[in-house]
Fold each of these.
Amino acid sequence: MKDADILFCRKAVVNRLSETTAYYILHPSNVTQGQDASFLSSLFVDANLTEITQQKTIFFQTSLTELSALPLQTNIHMVIFLSANELTEKHVETLSEFRLQGYQLGIINPKPEALTVALLSIFSYVMLTLDHLSVDDVITRIKHPALSSKNLWVNKIEKSEQFTQLLENVPEGQFSGNFINKMTSVKGKRILAYKAILIDLLVALNNRESSPRVLAECIERDPTLTYRIIKLTHSVIYRSQFNVSNAQRAIEIIGVRDLIKWVGLVMLGSVSGKPDCLFSMAVSRACFCQNLSTTLFPKLDGAFLVGLFSYLPSFLDEELPTLLKDLPLDENIKSALLEYKGNLGGILKIVVAYEAGRWEKIPFGLLASKDMSKQSLKDLYIKSLKEAREMGSL
């Protein structure tokens, strides 16, 4: 993960006065259909879109398949464009549901005579591209009653004479292309798409009314995550005798309390370019924190996550306060990670000191008052190493 990674590119969309009214967000490779998960992560997680787009509208092209994975952005005016070639009458109900949820939709290069009124009525924006249509074709098409009332955007303008002709015939339109403005690359640090899933899971878990189905929908956005969560149900830890085939059933077996733990493990285990021992160290610390917490404070939750997330900076090459800023974690977990506060913070402090051999920083007197000796602490550590090895093989 490098600071110079290109997360995505943007093109200015202007009005007839050449004032920027929107930004067209593109994949770095200029592939604007079938966006991969890392691109969606870059778009919605890795960068501050409000800052980058200067609070203007953003235009974004994707496929109908990927549309269901796009989070609704309530703080950004975003228009999602779909190719007319992949749309038929059978999609009216699905698209209407997206509109009801608050999504703004646009259609690319529609042929009005080939599409029904019901389908076209779903779209408030129309994009016409000069790599597929001539200027005369664009002018003719926008005069059709089904399109004339839409917000019109002409893309791929390459020549000044094209722009001049369009300004005369589409005065209220929006325009973009290499003639108007060169494309700008937006660079930054790429963070895994799992972070977006983790955020949504934490939000759902904080809502006590969230069902296993809602949680499963978050998990199923990533096939690898889904596979590994289902695989867990057949491990020694859970000993499921059922043939589990979907994330919802897996969550019911694993239990909601353990779900974030395993998602966190999959997330860190998927970071490339890091030594294998780093993952083992993170899992060992998480298990040690959990075992120590269970001994000292049997009713305390969150110790495993505190131990695991204490290694986030080592995996993602970013400061912990920055990494935790957007995660809706319990305040006890955040304060433990950032300031070693509370019982969770005390546990993390002991574990970190033990791992480093800093015996003078371990409150053995306090531990003795809770019937924990040096030997029992060592036994917990050895037990944690064994558990970490088992988890690493899942």
Note: Confidence is low (pLDDT under 50) at residues 31-35.
Amino acid sequence: MKSNHEPIKEKLRAKGVVMPNPESVYVADDVDIDRISGNDITVFPGCRITGSRTLILPGTRIGYEAPVTLENCLVGKNVRLNGGFFQEAVFLGDNVFGSNAHVRTGTILEEQACAAHAVGLKQTLLFPFVTLGSLINFCDCFMAGGTSRKNHSEVGSSFVHFNYTPNQDKATPSMMGNVHQGVMLDQPPVFLGGQGGLVGPVRIGFGCLTGAGSIVRKDEERPNWMILAGNTRSVSLPRRSGVHPGAVRIFNHNIKYLAGLAALHAWYVHVRPVFARDPLSRELISGLQKTLVQSMGERIRQLEKFCDTLKTSRPHDRILATMETVGQYIDQVLDSPKLSASGETLVSWLNNQITQHDTDYITAIQSLPREIKTQGSHWLLNIETTLLDLLTV
């Protein structure tokens, strides 16, 4: 007897999706087969595909090393998801992710960003070429840097981003590089040494390197510095619960992170659609934009939770007053992402480049004349600084 899910699998196979052992593959009834390409897609045994938002573009391989659960993910061209759990994440193309993955809501991997086995991500944004080793927990992070697969930002194996505080909040997002320069794909890579960690929120500049085993607790936004951070001394001290040292720094770092995502949202709204040349690609970019908006909502939610713990402390009245306006200003930026004159010049140049040469995203961005790159970076930086001027305390 055929299962209730056999017809949808038969339609996918008739469309061209390869399933070497279809009896072992589960495809939920809510999956829209029109959002799955029939061109060069393979789903290996033991996989589960669910969710009405699920989108799969040509050249994708799912479950080659181990079974994959894929729920409401947007998967671009030539992606390899080799094993694990993937939920409400976006892969923009040419990504490889090893087995034993645990990738959750709000994760975005831009072109050629990759990860080895046993990597956990949530609310994580990786720009092109960023590479994660094995046995890594890298939630609530943004990372840019690098110019190619040979010259890429990297996180060494057994690395942890510590994103949960003793005061039980996650107002801890960390940034490696920045948005307004990172989008131009011409910055030196960041290297985070293996068996190390970051205590969020921290900010690390382009070209910086942390030594293996370093636990980094302080910002280093100057470019091209080496950071060697040892463990704290072994001491015992009385603990006072409910104390929030560095509350202003934590709040401002969250605002800086949100400002960066606001600038990235403008880039996704105005620049990314230039490269969406078919219905599935346009759906990918639309989903990318929605995922980023959801990620910003999550950051605001976590910051509100942090601020709730400050309400009994008078020195933090300024933070609390500012927090009341954060959502309002962020919504204004998202509702009408501004395209300045310099931004218009950049978008026009890219449109001409694609029309004449059918250029892919990475090649086109790296081909931008230096003057246009500089103008484009200023456009995005102005979005960031506008929010920072309004919201930092």
Note: Residues 279-308 form the longest helix (30 residues).
